[in-house]
Known about the structure:
It is a single chain. The chain is of the alpha+beta class. Among the domains are: 1-35, no CATH class; 245-287; 403-481, no CATH class. The chain has 14 helices and 16 strands. The strands form seven sheets. A three-stranded antiparallel β-sheet has the order 3-2-9. It has a three-stranded antiparallel β-sheet with strand order 4-5-6, with no helix packed on it. A hairpin with a 6-residue loop joins β12 (371-375) and β13. α4 crosses α11, α7 (221-241) packs antiparallel against α9 and α12 runs antiparallel to α13.
Amino acid sequence: MTIARALARRATEATPQQLVATGAAGGSWGVDPVDGDTGYKLAGSRGRQMPAWTLERARAGSVAAYRAKPMGRAIVDTYTSFCVGDRGVSYQVTNPQVRVVVEQFWTDPRNNLGGNQELQLRDQILQGATLLEMLEGAVSGVVRFAPMDVAAISRISWLSGNPLWPDKVWMRAGDGMDEKSYPVVAVDDLTGLRAGKAQLWQPWKTLTTDIHSMPFLTPILDWLDNYDTILSNLIDRTALARYFTWDVTITGDQRAVDAFVEARGGLHPPPSGSVEAHNENVKWEPKFAPSGAFEDAAAAGSALTLIAGGSGLAKHWLAEPEHTNRATGQTMAEPVRRRVAGVQKTWLGYQTELARFAVDRAVAAKRLPAMVEAADPKTGQRYQIPAAQCVTVTGPEIAAADSQITAQVLLNLATGLEKLVADGVMPKEAASVAARKAWEDFVGIPYTADLAGPDANPDDLATHIDDPKQRRLQPVGGGATA
C-alpha cells in the first residue's frame, strides 16, 4: 500500500483499535483482552455491543472530566442548567384527586424530586444511564426510590427477546458471582398499570440492539485531554520563557574572553537594576525563548471547536465569545437549542413516567380510581382518561421568547387573515381558529376565553403569560394539553 493510499484510508476509516474498542466491528474484529486472540465473538452476544472495559473507562473518564477539567464541567453544567435549571422542573395534573397523589410523591422529603433534578440529570449524563430501585408500600402504595450504581449491572434481559422491552436488570450482589434481579418498570398488559422494581433509563444507545447506553461525553473525552495538554504545554513554555540568558560578545581570542570573565568574577548575570560598565569591545544581548503562544492558541481553538461540536454546543457558549458577533451567535443558537431541547425532552419524559408510576401504584392500592375525569383547559370539555395520563412533567424553556419577533409574526398573520376574511376567501370562524392556533404556537400558552374578555387587565394577562406552569403545552391524552 502506498503512502498516499494509507493516508487516504486513515482519513476516512476508523482504525482497527477503534473498531474493537467501540464494539463497532460486531465481533468480527474482536480481540480477547486477556490473551490477545482475535476474530472471536462472545457466546450469546448479539449486535455491536460496546465492550465492558470501554464502557467503564468512559464512565470513569466522564466523572474525572467533570471533577477535574474546566471544559468538561462547563459542558455538563450547561446542559443541566438549560434542561432543569432556571425555573426548575414542575408537574401539571388535570385532575384534583390525582394531583394530591403526585404532590405527595413529588414533595416527599425522601424523594425531593424538585430539589434533586440537577444532580440526577448530571449523574445520567456522566454515567450514561439511570437505575432507580422503586420502594413501594405494600398496603398504601406510597412510592419512594433509591439510586443504584449502573456500574454494578451484570446483565439486562429482554422480554421475548425484544431489545426495546427490557425485562430484568441483574445486579452483582457482592464480590462473588451472586446476582440479584430487579423487574424493570413497564405497563402490565392485563391491568394497564405500571409495575416493577426498577426504573431503567438509557437515553444514549447507539443501536436499538445495544444493551447499555454510553456516557454523554464519550465522543469527546480524548479531545478534552488533548485540549488540556495543549494549554498545559503552553503554560509550561510561558513560564520557561520568562527566563532569559545574556549573550556576551567579546572582541578578541579566548584569552580575552577568559580575562573578561575573571575580571567580572564569574558568569553570573548582572543584578536587576544594576549598571554593567564595559568598552566597545564588549556587547551584551538578551536572548529570549519563544513560547509558541500563537501556534498553541490556534491548536487549542481547533480542539475546542471539535469539543463544542461533539457535545452539541456552540463554541462561543463555552469560551472565546469575542470571536462571535451577535448575528453569528443568533444564527448558531438554533441548532444548539434544538439539541439541548432534545436532551430535555428525553429527561422530562423519564420524569413523567416516574410520576405516572406513583399514580399507577396508588390506583393498584385503591387510593385512586383507574379512570378519572379531566378537563381540557382550552375548551373546558370533560372526558374520562386513565389516572396516570393526567400527569405531565414540564421544564424551563430552552430559548427565551423574542417578543419583537413574536409580535411581528402575529401582526403579519392578523393582517393576512383580515384580508382573507374581507375578500370572502376564509370565513370569520376559520380565521378565529387560525389566530388562536398561532397564539398558542408563538406565545406558548393555551388560549382561553379569559384572554379575549373586553375587561381583561393587561397586568393580569402578563402574569398569566409569564407563569411557568403555562409555558409548555403537553398532551395528556384525549387530545387535551396541560
